[in-house]
Design goal:
The protein has one domain (about 1-210): Beta Barrel (Lipocalin), CATH 2.40.128. Helices cover about 5% and strands about 55% of the residues. The chain is built from one helix and eleven strands, in the order αβββββββββββ. It has one helix at about 1-15, and strands at about 40-50, 50-60, 70-80, 85-95, 105-120, 125-135, 140, 145-160, 170-180, 190-195, 200-210.
């Protein structure tokens, strides 16, 4: 387990960009529900940034040997002015409760740390620490599998650098809706759709491979 944590820490350090502009919030959408698949996910991403929209790609990977509780994510995007933004982070998740006859939902706690950034005239890095709870439930009908979920929490943001707009830690609410679904019983390919609401708007659509 120590070696796994070492790999995770090294990966997050390598994924953090040095100087940033038009920063993508690395943690949106969360893509974390109680039944969200493990393995590798590759997704298209549209994220709202201070200067407008950024379209890009992102990937998430649940580290082997962690029972799906440690997930790396990273990616890059391009805004309307052809400025490149990069981001990376690490997610931690653990089950809180499973559904029962009295309580119909599965509950899971999540947290993480990561950064987003890019290249431009203003140079700073946006460090974000999200935390919260997700709730959902999976259903199966024949070969179809559905796992909708909602995630509610808070994100702590800190701009680091001379050009950072704020030099204090700020908190903003975070709300996400998502669904993972597969059309074959073996779930070799799982379609993933998620959106973040409010001030941290983002949309992700993609596939999980063998999760």
């Amino acid at each position: 387990m120590k070696s796994t944590w070492g790999v995770a820490l090294a990966a997050i350090l390598l994924s953090m960009p040095p100087a940033v502009h038009a920063q993508i919030a690395w943690d949106t959408p969360r893509l974390i529900g109680p039944e969200s698949p493990r393995g590798l996910s590759v997704l298209w991403l549209r994220s709202e940034v201070p200067e407008g929209r950024t379209d890009g790609v992102m990937a998430t990977w649940a580290l082997p040997g962690t029972d799906g509780r440690v997930i790396l994510r990273g990616g890059a995007g391009l805004d309307d002015d052809d400025r490149v933004s990069a981001f990376g982070g690490i997610d931690l998740r653990t089950p809180l409760a499973r559904h029962t006859e009295e309580q119909p939902l599965d509950l899971e706690w999540y947290a993480g740390i990561g950064a987003g950034g890019g290249a431009g005239s203003e140079q700073y890095m946006l460090l974000t620490l999200p935390m919260g709870v997700s709730a959902g439930r999976a259903w199966t009908s024949g070969s179809v599998w559905l796992a909708p979920y909602v995630a509610l929490g808070v994100a702590l943001d800190l701009g680091i650098g001379e050009d950072a707009p704020d030099d204090e830690l700020t908190a903003s609410p975070a709300a996400d809706l998502g669904i993972d679904f597969a059309l074959d019983a073996r779930r070799r390919f799982i379609i993933r759709v998620a959106t973040s609401l409010g001030d941290r708007q983002a949309l992700a659509l993609g596939l999980n491979l063998g999760g």
